[in-house]
Write a structure and sequence with these properties.
Layout (H helix, E strand, L loop, with lengths): L7 E5 L2 H11 L3 E8 L4 E8 L2 E8 L18 E5 L2 H10 L8 E2 L6 E6 L5 E6 L1
Parallel strand pairs: 1-4, 5-8
Antiparallel strand pairs: 2-3, 3-4, 6-7, 7-8
């Protein structure tokens, strides 16, 4: 029935800041960018390794949504990485601070978190 996750939609407060974060900091590639005048909204389609994964939307004055890790709803967005130390070092060079690296108690794998410009938790999980 289900074959894979098609995409993740994210609504941001400051479109230009979030666009720069997801493209310049995380390295996602822009597939298409559309401004929908009737909604005063941008829609930015982003890809990772050639695969469409994120729709980034802007809307005028979106309401706040709890983003704490234990709030009901989406907990976080996670990316698999080959070298967590390299990811953390690259993020630091771009002035993005990661939490201390932790070990998953069930898999023994290393992971860390950062926040996007709207405080959405983003996890990097080492392969």
């Amino acid at each position: 029935m289900l074959s894979k996750v098609h995409h993740i939609a994210i609504i941001c407060r400051d479109y230009n800041v979030s666009k720069a974060f997801y493209t310049d900091v995380l390295g996602l590639r822009v597939i298409r960018e559309v401004y929908r005048e009737e909604r005063a909204s941008y829609k930015l389609d982003l890809a990772l390794n050639g695969e469409y994964i994120i729709e980034l939307f802007s809307f005028p004055d979106p309401p706040e949504r709890p983003s704490r890790p234990e709030a009901a709803g989406l907990r976080h967005l996670a990316f698999q990485v080959d070298d967590l130390d390299l990811v953390v070092e690259t993020l630091q060079q771009k002035e993005v601070l990661a939490e201390p690296i932790r070990i998953d108690e069930f898999t023994g794998k290393r992971f860390t978190f950062i926040s996007d410009p709207d405080h959405l938790p983003i996890e990097f999980y080492e392969k």
